[in-house]
Amino acid sequence: VKFVPVELGAHKIVVLFHEQDVPNSPFSCEVSDPSSCIAMGEGLHTCSVGEEVEFEIDATKAGPGTLQATFDGTAQPIDFQLVSCVERVFRYRYLVSQAGEYTIDLKWVGIQIPGSPFKVTAKEVFPQPTACVILERPLGNVKVREETVVKVDCSSAGKGELRALLITPKFEMLCHIIEEDDIYTVTTRPTDVGNHCLVLQFAGEPIPDSPILFHVNDPAQVKLDINPSSPQTTPMNKIFKLYANTESCGEGHMTAKATSPEAPTRQIDLDVEQDTNGRGYTINYIPSIPGMHNIHLYYDNKPCLSSPINLKVLDLDSLHDIVLTKSLPTKGTQYLMNKTLKFKLTAPNRNLSDFEFTALGIHTGSHPKLAILPTSKDNYTLEFRAAKQDDYKISVTYKDEHIQGSPFTIPVRSPARANKVSMYDPVIPLTGDKPLELVFDTSQAGHGAISASVVNSKRKSLPVYVEQVTDDMFRVAFIPKSSNTFMVSVFFADKHIGGSPFRVLYQEQTKDPPVAIHFEPDMNIKGLMGAAVYGRNSGRQEATVVQFERGKYQISFQPLAPDTFDVHIYWFDQEIEGSPFEIDLLGMENESSESLVDSVPITVGEKTGILAATAVGRVTGPMPIKLIPFEDCLCTIEFTSRVKDTYDMNIFWNGKCLPGMPIVLPID
Q1: How far is Cα 610 from Cα 603, in angstroms, rounded to an integer?
Q2: Mean pLDDT of the chain, nearest integer
Q3: How far apart are CA 551 and CA 500, in angstroms?
Q4: Do 339 and 323 form a contact (C-beta atoms < 8 A)?
Q5: What is the rounded distance in angstroms from the CA atom of residue 611 to the CA atom of residue 599?
Q6: Omega into 407 within 30° of 0, i.e. cis?
Q7: How many CB atoms lie within 10 A of CB 259?
C-alpha cells in the first residue's frame, strides 16, 4: 500500500480485508516536511572566539515533529543551548573558546533540514585601538571642579575596554567611565589649577588623539585690592581703579563689565589692562552719573565673584582742604617691615568719626591695623605697621568719599639679609673659553641686589658680569680662560652672602673621563642635580656631577673593574623617572660582568621592574648565576657549585637590595 500525503499533520490509514479491518487498523501516521524548515542567523556561518552568537530555525511550516541540534568541531563550545522556542521558532546561542572549524547539525524528525550540516569558522578577534574615535572633548580652558566630559566611540575597535587616566599637577587618578552601546563617556572634576593630561587607552594601547591636554583655572582665586563684599565709593567723573591679582587663577583672560542706575540691565565693557609681568589686571571705570553702580568681573568668561562689586558714585565737591602727608621711606623708595610708619592728616573742621582708614596687602591679602591719634586741633597722626612684605593699598575716606591722593600704595619690604641668599648648581665649562656661571636666589633675602668681583691666584681681577634674570634670580659669570684658582666675592645689599668669598678651583677637561653620561633635564635657571653609582659586585663608586652648560650635565665615574653599574640620578633630591640606569662595562678582553650577575624584567600587578641576583662564595668568590622566569611573578635562581663552600646570595629589585639579604647557603 503506497500513498503520497499532500497535507501536514496526523493521518489515519484504514486497511480492510473483505470489508473488515485487519488487525491494528486503522493505523496512525504523522506527516512532516523537514524541507520547510528555515535556518538563519550569523551563527550558522562564522563566529568570534569568546563572543556569544545566535541562530534561529523556523519550523512553523514543517508539520509535527522535533528538532535535533548538535555542535561539533575543534573544541566543545563553552555554552550551546536553546534559549527560546516561541510558536515553533527555535533560537540557539553558543560561545567557543578556540579558533577553528565547527559543524552544526540540524535535523527535523531525524531528517537534515535544508543547508544542514552548517560549516562554521571561528576566528580570533583582536582589539583595534586605532579605530576608536573621540566624539567630544574639552575646548579651551576648564573651570576647576567643573564636570569635564570626553566621549569615545569604540564600536569598531573590537573586544576590549577603555581606560582613562587623568594626570594633574599634583597626582594621577583613574576617571569614572560609563559605557553604552560601545560609546564610552569619561567624566572628571579636576580640583587643581594647572595643565592636565588625560591619557586614553583601549585594550592597553593609546587611541588616536590621546593624550588630551587641557588647562584648568579657578576664577574664584582672584585677589582684589579691595574688600569685594563692602560697598566702595568714588567721585563722579573721576577714574576708579581696581587691581585684580590672578597669579593663583591659572591661564586665562580677565574681562569686566559695569551696570549703572541709568541702565541697570545693560552691561558695558570696562577698560582692562594686564600687567607687563602677567600677574594681574587693572580695571578702569569712569562713572558719569551718581548712584549705585555694579562691577562684574569675569575670568575666561566665567564669574570671579558670587556677587558684583557695589560702587557708590558720589556727586560731591572736592575735599581739597583735607591733606594727607606721607611718611618718608625708610630706605630709598622702600618702607621696611615691622617699622611704625606715621602719616600726618590735616582735616579742618572735620569730625574724626566721619573718616574711615583701611590698609590691604595687594599680594598677600593681609589687613594690618591702622591707628589714628589726635596731635592738635584739626591734625592727626595715622600710624601703620606691616608684618609682611607686600605692596599695601592705603585708603582714607571722608563720608564714604576718598580724600585727595587716596587710595595710594606703599611698598613694604623686609630688611636685606645676605645670609638668606641661596645658590643653585654652578656652570663649570669643560673649556676655559666658555663662561663659568653662579646662580643665586634672593627670594628669602629681602630687598636688595647682587654684586660680585673675581680675582685669580695672582690676585689679578677678571671682568665679571652680573645679570638679574627674574625678580629674585641673579646670574654671576666670568671667563676663566685657563685652569686656575679663583676667589669669587658675592655681595647682597653690599654685604657678603653666606660662604663668600668662594674659592673656585677650575680645571679644564683635557681628556674625556672613563665613563661620562650627558643629561639635559627640562629646567629653568634653577637646578640641583646629584648622582650615585653602585657596582653590583664592586659596591659604591665615587661619581662627579658637573653642569658644563646651562641645562646640560655631565655625570662621570672611574670604574675599578668590569661590572654592571646602577646609576641613580637625583633632581632636587628626588630620583628622576627611569632611574636607576643600568651600564654594563667590559674589561680589556671584552669579558662581561653578566656572568656574575643576571637580571630579568618582572611584572607585579601593573608595575614592571628589574629583578637581579648575585652569588658569592666566601672562598671561591663570585659565581655565574642565571634567573629563569616562569608563570606570573615567579622566577628560578640557578648557579652551579663545584666545590664545598658557603655562598652569600643577594637579590635586588630595581637596583636596591631586598630586606633580609644576603641569603646564606652552606653547600657540602
Answers
A1: 9
A2: 84
A3: 25
A4: no
A5: 5
A6: yes
A7: 17
Closest-CA residue to 543 (of 551, 534, 657): 534
- pLDDT at 527 (0 to 100): 79
The pLDDT, as a whole number, for residue 596 is 61
Question: What pLDDT was estimated at residue 299?
Answer: 93
| Inter-residue long-range contacts of 408-411, CB under 8 Å, 24+ positions, other chains counted | 408/326, 409/362, 410/326, 410/335, 410/341, 411/333, 411/334, 411/335
CA torsion, ordered 356, 361, 364, 369, to nearest 10 deg: -50
**331 DSSP assignment:** B
Q: Which amino acid, 97?
A: S
Other beta carbons within 10 angstroms of residue 625's beta carbon come to: 21
596 DSSP assignment: T
CA-based max dimension of the chain:
155
Sign of CA dihedral 442, 444, 447, 448: negative
* Cell representation of residue 589: 678582553
Phi, psi values for residue 404, rounded to 5°: -60, 130
What is the DSSP code (8-state) at residue 339?
Answer: -
pLDDT at 592 over 50: no
Q: Are 282 and 288 in contact (CB under 8 A)?
A: no
| pLDDT tens-place string over residues 132-145 | 999 999 988 999 99
The whole-angstrom separation of Cα 322 and Cα 314 is: 17
**Closest C-alpha to 128, from 166, 182, 180:** 182
Extended beta strands in 158-279, E state: 162-167, 172-174, 176-180, 183-188, 194-202, 205-206, 212-217, 223-224, 232-235, 240-245, 254-260, 263-269, 271-274
Q: Do the bridges between strand 309-314 and strand 232-235 make them parallel or antiparallel, or are there none, so unpaired?
A: parallel
* Rg, Å, the chain Cα set: 43
Cβ atoms of residues 216 and 190 within 8 Å: yes
Partnered with residue 28 across adjacent β-strands are 12
Burial zone of 10 (CB within 10 Å; 0-12 exposed, 13-18 middle, 19+ buried): exposed
Assess whether pLDDT exceeds 60 at residue 480.
Answer: yes
Q: Retrieve residue 502's grid coordinates.
A: 668662594
Please indicate whether residue 601 or residue 217 has the higher confidence score (pLDDT): 217
**In one letter, which amino acid is 490?**
V
As a whole number of angstroms, the distance between CA 112 and CA 34 comes to 7
Which residue has cell 562713572?
287
pLDDT at 598 (0 to 100) = 65
Tell me what pLDDT residue 595 has. Answer: 46
Q: pLDDT value at position 331?
A: 57
Task: Report the alpha-carbon distance of residue 59 to residue 81 in Å, rounded.
Answer: 18
